[in-house]
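Entry 14. Ran structure prediction on the chain below.
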Amino acid sequence: MKDPFSIAGRRFLITGGTRGIGRAISLQFARAGATVIANFVRNTEQAEHLMSLSREESLDIRLLRADLTSKKGMDQVESCIEELGPLSGFVHCAATGIHKPLSELTTRHLEWIFALNVQAFLGLVQRLRERFEIGASIVAVSSQGALQAVPYYTLVGASKGALDSMARHLAVELAPEGIRVNILAPGSVLTTAWDSMPEKDQRINEARKRSPLGHLVTPEEVALAAQFLCSDAAQGMIGHRLVVDGGAGIVQ
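Output, structure tokens:
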């Protein structure tokens, strides 16, 4: 009997796929037997490290350096998918942000954040729509800031809220075409993204205290949830928001 949780032999694009949660998803998918296109833009050191692991473990991971906020970058993605063949899905991990109080935020910050966090997602869905297999899965990686007020997270939280709403609307529109769209919402995950946040250590400690597990969610735990959403085991999930926060969200 076929394993409904298997993604072996399938092909996935992971945006922001060489760092943090995206890196964990790229590795998890490849270790599960999938072909992975790991997109990145600037950090060549992290990209090279991922490829080093890929060679050591004989994983099928391919790097794609492309700026998803530009037409050239989108053209590069489309060309890559044309060469690879029909896509089994993509996970949108690519994100950027500014962590400042209201008095320091500008419309330029807003445009920059939304360009990658929201507009790039829409552009990829439009560009790749005809290149998805029947049963393909699209996963938008959101955050707790989409629903809750997080200090200095105004613009990022707004972009994630927009991403959530967009994913739900696209889920309804694309379901008749055999394309599933869902939202993956990690809780507090210890990645380098914390380095740009004010009061980093204090907020990490507070997040640990809220967790029934006593520790933050790991990127690998989020990656396993992403694999589930991209497998046949989740074929009945359409427009769902899957929270992976170690139970922190149920604790006051």
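The mean pLDDT is 93. Will compare against last week's run tomorrow.
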